[in-house]
User: Fold these one by one.
Assistant:
Number 1:
Amino acid sequence: MPDSLAVHLIQINSLWEDRPANHAKARQLIAAVNPQPGSLIILPETFSTGFSMNLSVTAEPEGGPTEQFLREIAAKYQSCVIGGVVTQTADGRGMNQSLAISPAGTVLSRYTKNHPFSMGGECQVHVAGTSVSLFEWQGLRIAPLICYDLRFPELTRTAVRAGAEMLIYIAAWPVKRIQHWVTLLQARAIENLCYVIGVNRCGTDPQFTYTGRSLVVDPHGIIIADAAEQERVINAQIDPAIVRDWRSQFPALKDAGLMTNQCH
């Protein structure tokens, strides 16, 4: 097991409803940093199409073009890749998902957003998920989450109770509420004694402007990587021992009943 995990946050300016162009752009951004084998590569929510509610464009079957793109990247760089995809239900509605793919092409996690963004009309077209989904990469237990989920801390408690040591939020979070994004990512890290990664898009679409601020936050709430506002990739090293040592030293999770506590 490696001592640290290399993470690459792909802060992309997604072109509206243009899947081939966004796949090409993401491919170029990732190639520029040339991730080493064993890395974790993370793309934002609905990065292939932008945050559109037009299911005729956004929805894909399982194994569709965006899933195939993620498999391509995972295999090429022998890394785990996480990215947003919209899949379609049998009744024609969509599911806003975070998909994690292994280098071998295995689906490690398919998490469905528990809290569709009602202000953006998402709950009219996307079915809400009902559970968390954890997977392990390089010995670290990871819980993927999506954008508006960040405002609901009880969801992260469920993930931590299940063993999560890192929370990853992929997002299309607009500039109007960007301070909420930064503050809540730090809060989730502090209260759960874990790493938190937020990967947001930048640029504009017909509805919103996005200023990125993709972040890596350590278990003390300290921002250790910040992508600022431009389209770019930021990199960081995650040390699993920092999570485990801090949780051992500071018993907040035990006192919350999320881990075994000898006082109870």
Note: Helices lie at 19-33, 55-58, 65-77, 153-161, 178-192, 240-249, 252-255.
Number 2:
Amino acid sequence: MRAVDGLTFAAETGTVFGLLGPNGAGKSTTIKILSTLARADSGTAFVAGIDVARHPARVRRSIGFVAQKSVADPMDTGVENLVLAGRLQGLSARDAHARAADLLDRFSLTEHGTRLVKTYSGGMARKLDVAIGLMHRPTVLFLDEPTTGLDPEARAELWAEIERMTAAENMTVLLTTHYLEEADRLAKRLAIVDHGTVVAGGTPEELKNDLRGDAVIVELTADGDPFAALEALSRVDALREIGGDGHTLRARADNGAATLPAALAALDAAAISVASATVARPSLDDVYLRHTGRTIGKAQENYALENAS
């Protein structure tokens, strides 16, 4: 089975480029290849204009890498972790301490710099991980699912730091994520990845606008028959792209507000009970659904089931 199959994209210098998809889509494998941690069987890849396969050492000097799991030593302080990272990248002791102080200030960690990392909250630890990746001022920074496991407040704080950091450092950031809001907020352009291939690409607004119209979402009650409901909705002329994910049915309409009453009337005529119904502007989840036939949430569930021990 191929983890990545013909995946092609280009990131604009000085921007955040997002790879959006569920676990198992091939995002982390792509980053491992680009960061020289894995070798592709075929194809070519360039990072900061450098051929990854021919000049891996040059690529490593040009990039920063923030993995899904923390790389900080929990038994060292924040300052010690940063200085060590700087020294390993060739900075002098003086420059490493100066850069560490600058990054601690930028990530609002100055008062915690002398504490052991094991005492940090999850959000603080992830900020430190990103700071470690920035110590040598890389041209390209890889962020592999940087906010997984964080609570909403810590995630929002890290998003703000990533936005500020990208502007301040003027570097290219490659972000992998399965969080729709994260991709929508941070990425100037993104590629939606499914089973190792890019199924759609563009700016978040371009991808959403391509869908045209509104999303009509109907949640059935527990005793509702999804198949009968899909058949009933198919008789509403104004609806298109009708599909279901369990008891959640989705369709598109040029004017969702005007079409919703007709959709509910069709379901009522078929004696199908509705728990809720909403109309919304297109989302990245709608984009993913159109191109893959399932939502990212459902894809995440399927991956978890397939890989359950």
Note: The chain has a mean pLDDT of 91.
Number 3:
Amino acid sequence: MILATGRLTLRPVEDGDVEALREHWDHPLVRRHLFDDEPVLPDLVARLVEDSHRDFAERGYGLWALVPDSALAGVCGLRRTDDGEVELLYSLSPARWREGLITEAATAILEYAFGTLSLPRVVAEVDEGNTASVRTALRLGMAREPASRSPSKPVHRFGLSAPAKPER
């Protein structure tokens, strides 16, 4: 499922993206909030890409590569959490920060989630120190919620319910 916005093509991640994703996620400014600042190894990335393929086949969602030009600039997607919720997640190359690309991509994915997939709700968990991602969640209209599980690091939890459908 390819999605498009004014500046982005969002396409499902592919096997050929593994090295670019590993480099992206292993950037120190990216991995500190996604991988607890641990090195991101190729086997992990390959497994995440495989999981995304499966999720697209079974659920209609997964990880989308953000491609504003010819190079992968980040990832935005949906995944099912251990507690059965659907979580929005995103990362962007630091060279592209402050351009509004994540908000643009996440808006398209939320429209797809609520419109095409008819999901009732989407959540996001953001590391306590990641103020930029907190601002993004709030810009997307997500509301703060109590954290529902005990993560390894303190997190902010946000939730967004599908817009009410107009009555006919």
Note: Strands lie at 3-4, 9-12, 63-67, 74-80, 86-92, 121-127, 143-145, 155-161.
Number 4:
Amino acid sequence: MTDRLLPDAETIETVLASRPGAWGAGARVLSVRDLSPGLSRAAVLRVSISAPGSRPAQWIVKIPSWGEPSLLDSRDGRLHLREADFFGSDVPGLLPSGLATPADPTVIRQNGLDWIVMRDAAAVLHQSWTPAAAMTTAERIAPLFAVGAARAGLLDSLWLERAGYAAYTHHIRDGHDNLDALAHDPQLRALFTPEQVDALHTCLDAAAVLSARAAELPTTLVHGDLHPRNAGLDPHGALLLIDWEHVGVGPVGFDLGTFVSMYRAFGGSGELDEPALLEVYGRALSDLAGADLRPAVAIGFAIAHLTWGLHLRLGPGLTAVRQGLHGDSPGELAAHLDDLRSGCLRALSWASATSLA
């Protein structure tokens, strides 16, 4: 992740001692395990903590600004600050029933960095994702629409992300270059047909048009990076969400689009019925809004596929494959190639919803 050494147990104990928290006074750190994702600058640590008179408990310590930008490089100046802004605001308390964050989140400012300390939610996050669970997720995320109505001016907060569907448009040039290079790569030339390559070029070039369409849609509070590794259903059916760096304001349907786009890439099993998911989400959203928003939801969903999904896959995703960053295992490479192909083709199947095809 970074050449910067991760904090050791003594350093973490010092940070915890600087502010009272649910970990308890006199907390000792028994072990530290690095969980940092490879494509993020954040340091993410699983920490076993013991306080006098209590049993050891598992916590997550996240330091969003620890490392350097990676291939993803969102060009978002607040990306490394936003999750701390989120947990330091009253928004988590406004989340509707059926949505949750990890318990006891606390933000500590130490040596110019934000440290986010929260209960470890691995037991919920490590569930198996199925089409039925995805359908429940569609129902659970629709009420995010109601959060904006809970407090006047909430969606105008300056720290919220805007136009997250365009967060990776700076990868479009690389996407074009990667598509052009496929014909000269024996391993990758069969990834798409010439007609599909042309259609993908067209979609990449349509970013400004798609952004204009998105700006016309009804807006909602969005998680902004919703996919199976950032979510889990607890035994009672509540949807727990982590990694709020992209929380913001976006078009209705966007969160569902990102979830579906990355469903198979991040371990989801079975085939999703995308129209059925849209119907469940759209009906729940329309009931909250008191108006039929299903046509708008379909457009927002399609835009997520055609911008966020394509820009990530054809930019840093295909670049990583071409640079051999996925190792030498044929099985691992095949899985990445399958996601690139299937994800891009599913995006193309939604182009007509935005009048691109």
Note: The mean pLDDT is 93.
